[in-house]
């Protein structure tokens, strides 16, 4: 599967920093959404924000139980923040939704750490990308299990959504001193803090990082000794006992699968004083074909190869997760990773790795709570990308593991089900709130195609839209005068790249034919107001653009539209079936069709250009009423079908825009409610979620400091049936929706 944890990188201005050591800033997470006023007009309104239920949908890269508190656990994701497990409610609570637009790069969690001696302490190392265009990482620390945070900014970059993101925890509280923390980085060696993460400085480490390598892949405590994995070749495992720096671990594996020297994860069995290390020939989660599991007797220094199965040419894979049972010495569980033949599994041993049992072979999976895990009509899989793995230290029968889409758990080693409530990591691309019918919402997502949401509080019962099944959705459109007709496009899973529905998205059929380019470069799709004309744009993931195609027979035949700007996003007029619009981001011009998409002519020109995320939205129930979100160039409007645009006064930035049911004033409906993620100085200095009930004359901020979710510039829409309700797509925190309080 293509993973929602691999979105197109959101390039933002890199934050400057002068030194690794940085002063911490206290962050009040639960800031109230109080009312403020400007010239007598309210500019904020309290909303109740919730997350639409799907169930995971992204790569869970780490799960960590607290060793001293029953029922307390944490999870990290590659682009969707961190979570705390609430055992009483049997659900996860998001801990990093307060991170705002400028901190979008901090939604990826590189590592997390707890303090065994102080159960309320929690630490997060944040940073999604380590490239020069990304902002540096940060360390958050909490004294109340993630309710509130203090922050220390770093000058080094972390890579929670890069290769190696499923490796071990790179952050560790020193077992000899709770004031000391270690942080392993990918390109800047080892950092150390002696003031509980408030400031950081480089620590002496014997290995030299590579510009394109993995650096420190894991940190684990074994009694009072700290072990560090190294992923840049040469010596793979180091240790320190605090008496004289770091040294290579004697006798470590240097032949066979371990010769690749990429230690993935490690776990220490205090009962037998054994350290278990998993190895692979690459950092993963992709592109692993060989691996092994080794045990170190930390008393005698003797190493043993205890691999359950040796990978072979017909069964190539690496080893990923490893965990021990704190209640039963000698019991260890490991996971395979990137095993696409027999499918990944967990191996469990009760004799220190002398013999193993595959837990997959006896597993009974129940995915009824999250039906999409059946991947269309197929049977649910045990999982893939299994690198996060943990045994509950208070319950030997409770094992959990993360996959590329969910967290599975068992309470009896046989029956497995998702333990994912509250954890949502979708990268949301399209949202449609239908004006009628059985669906409350239709969503187009990264990795898992299109969903039909009958309810917002339960995972869609139909699962992923099938016939065909897509990976990432690239287009979703509804015929506004015939809302039962819906079309979608996306990366095909071995079949068609486009489909249509005559029942509002409840069921689907592939187009009878498709352009040859569709399978390799599916792009956005539009349908005319009456459902008779389809316009399909094509753009490859590498940015190559192709000519759009048009169909007037429901997808039976297609013809190229030479006058359509290549790679543009077509928009249908809500009332006039003969009109389509497209914004050419290369030239900064709007092109208009008045013959149902057969030909396009230039309309307004000399508009902002150069960013593919500039986009047009058409106001519902009106013809030719267009709004252009031009990011930091603000918001523009046309009331003549795209011939002229005028800047909307007071709006400094607009990133995503949509419409909902109009407010009722004096018994009459006003202009449709407008929702956007943007910046209006009268409400807030940063990017916020905004609503206007008067065609953009004034704006009300409807989110608060506790609800920001990093980057939210892809899609937003209101509900045509419920005034005030808004649906917001995030890049890693799923679908957020809210109603006024």
Q: What topology emerges from the helices and strands here?
A:
Layout: E1 24-27, E2 37-38, E3 41-42, E4 47-51, E5 60-65, E6 73-77, E7 82-86, E8 91-94, E9 109-115, E10 118-126, E11 138-142, E12 149-153, E13 171-173, E14 181-184, E15 190-193, E16 201-203, E17 216-222, E18 225-230, E19 237-240, E20 247-248, E21 262-269, E22 274-280, E23 291-297, E24 303-305, E25 318-324, E26 332-337, E27 346-349, E28 357-358, E29 364-365, E30 389-391, E31 399-402, E32 407-410, E33 415-418, E34 428-432, E35 441-445, E36 449-453, E37 470-478, E38 486-492, E39 498-501, E40 509-510, E41 522-527, E42 534-539, E43 545-551, E44 559-561, E45 570-572, E46 580-584, E47 589-593, E48 601-602, E49 615-618, E50 626-629, E51 635-638, E52 646-647, E53 651-660, E54 664-665, E55 668-669, E56 673-680, E57 688-692, E58 700-701, E59 716-718, E60 726-729, E61 735-740
Parallel strand pairs: 29-33
Antiparallel strand pairs: 1-12, 2-3, 4-61, 5-6, 6-7, 7-8, 9-10, 10-11, 11-12, 13-14, 14-15, 15-16, 17-18, 18-19, 19-20, 21-22, 22-23, 23-24, 25-26, 26-27, 27-28, 30-31, 31-32, 32-33, 34-35, 35-36, 37-38, 38-39, 39-40, 41-42, 42-43, 43-44, 45-46, 46-47, 47-48, 49-50, 50-51, 51-52, 53-56, 54-55, ...
Protein name: 1,4-beta-glucanase
Family: Belongs to the glycosyl hydrolase 74 family.
Organism: Streptomyces fulvorobeus
